[in-house]
Fold:
Amino acid sequence: MRIVLVGPPGAGKGTQAAYLAKNLAIPHISTGDLFRANISQGTPLGVEAKSYMDAGNLVPDSVTIGMAEDRMEQADAAEGFLLDGFPRNLGQAEALDEYLKNNGLTLDAVLDLEVPEEEVVKRIAGRRICRNDSSHVFHAEYNKPKAEGVCDVCGGELYQRDDDREETVRKRLEVYHTETEPIIDYYKDQDLVVTIPALGKVEEVTKRAMDALQRGA
Ligand code: AP5
Ligand code: ZN
Structure:
């Protein structure tokens, strides 16, 4: 299956993607995680991305689209993927369509996680991620690691993301409304959107998502 995951910052995309990718046996491709890995390795791409991310803005398409396509290539897009955080504006959605068309592929579904804004603010405020791998995600209250400050998956140190400060979060939400939400209508026109409420326990949301994908795709 080829799936795009959308939803506001803090909706639980990364958290759900880890379970859905495992259940569906497809790779989880997160552009946010790819940027954070480049930042921690100090690559030129990471240096460029960091200034945009810290300000809560999107990294330019000229950088992002090539990086996402390289990763899909590496994963063998024909075997399926779960895209998390890409596409994030209409230009990226059109570029993805073009990439898929050139490879004789199509999307199966766009899974839209619906969460009220006051809840995403709480989720982001308590989020802690792993120094070794930013896809290892926890919450100080809702999704506690077994030992405080330590990643359950790899034993790495947990910390708060630089762009999770309150003023940056406000900017990221604004960017989501102006730049990313329009792609939901773009995909509705292609009859691909499956919307699920993403409130409740992590495993309840995963079940809802799996049921919706099986119904909708
Ligand atoms: P990115 O890393 O993609 O961030 P985001 O979209 O803002 O999403 P988040 O990672 O904040 O949240 P999430 O939905 O994954 O939630 P999570 O599972 O962590 O992007 C960061 C930046 O990179 C962007 O601002 C941009 O600058 C750049 N970038 C990335 N992609 C780009 C692109 N395509 N183009 C241009 N720029 C790009 O969950 C949040 C918290 O809630 C966690 O603590 C979790 O434990 C908790 N939680 C999860 N589910 C539940 C639940 N059901 N109940 C209670 N708590 C829960
Ligand atoms: Zn870890």
